Amino acid sequence: MASERLYHSSRLAPSHDGGSDTGHKTEIIRICDLHKTYKMGDIEVNALRGINVTILRSEFVAVMGASGSGKSTIMNIVGCLDRPTRGAYFLEGQDVSALSSDEWAHIRNRKIGFVFQGFNLLHRTSAVENVELPMMYNGFLSKERRQRALEVLQLVGLAERAHHLPNQLSGGQQQRVAIARALVNRPSLILADEPTGNLDTKTSVEIMELFQNLNDTEGITIVLVTHEPDIAEYAKRQIVFRDGLIISDNREN
Ligand code: ADP
Ligand code: MG
Fold first, then answer.
1. Ligand 1 centroid – CA 208 distance (Å)
2. Cβ(165)–Cβ(123) under 8 Å?
3. Is there a contact between 156 and 184 (Cβ–Cβ < 8 Å)?
């Protein structure tokens, strides 16, 4: 199909540099004995209490668990938005804790695509301009940025809405724009925290089918938080958190 050709064309194919090779598949995430403690005055909250997990390229993982179990905390650490209190996190073989804030910003921009519950689009800015934003610092000409953004909008099935403003789009369409924005820099990894949390059931299914299709046909690695079992079923692997610990993980390999 057209989307396959687009992502695997020289312009859009994911870069496969970096990472440690574990047999036939590359390791994207390795987390060892990770702890996160939030301090609020005299009170300490142990949000993560010793997490060990490895995620390989092209996996599609759902992170599940009740509210307060530590799902967003682990996503913030994996996304280089927050640092662990203790333990190690390797992204494509690189020890992230050793990096400076500038290097973090670079990783966030190049290696990770974020998708949020509330879409987080700029409101006075068209769909295609929203998708172009992550490319602003990449040294592309504006013409190249526009072409790439349009290609990725086509990949998520939104080519004909490229010049609409977010408020002229449905919630599902806005989330597609956000997914296109997350993909545009060919990240190693897509992180999505409750991406269907603001969507009705039918639209949630469409968005999950889009993630599934991106994973199946393009091999994009996806880690997605949800507290809904029906949504988690779209992933190939389900990891369940409880009270800051992983209590189950049905990894196949
Ligand atoms: P989930 O996303 O699974 O609902 P979180 O990772 O947001 O859970 O939160 C895990 C625990 O850490 C909760 O007890 C929460 O109240 C606490 N927590 C999260 N963020 C902070 C923060 N910035 N400061 C203090 N406590 C926090
Ligand atoms: Mg959360």
1. 25
2. yes
3. no
What the block records as the tokens of 143 is 């013409």
Mutate to test the pocket of ligand 1, among 34, 73, 77 (most ligand atoms within 8 A of CB): 73
Sign of CA dihedral 43, 70, 118, 122: positive
**CATH code at 57-82+101-249:** 3.40.50.300
- Distance in angstroms (rounded) separating the CA atoms of residues 184 and 149: 7
Dihedral of alpha carbons 179, 126, 8, 92, sign: negative
**Could you give the C-alpha distances from 232 to 69, 70, 136, 209, 210, in angstroms and in order?**
16, 17, 33, 12, 14
For the segment 8-28, what is each residue's pLDDT rounded down to a tens digit?
443 444 444 444 444 557 999
Distance between CA atoms of residues 221 and 3, nearest Å: 16
* pLDDT, tens only, 139-187: 889 999 999 999 999 999 999 999 999 999 999 999 999 999 999 999 9
Beta strands in 83-221 (DSSP E): 86-91, 94-95, 112-116, 189-193
Q: What predicted TM-score, i.e. pTM, was given to this entire model?
A: 0.90
For residues 229 and 236, give the distance between their C-alpha atoms in angstroms, rounded to a whole number: 13
94-95 vs 189-193, strand pairing mode: unpaired
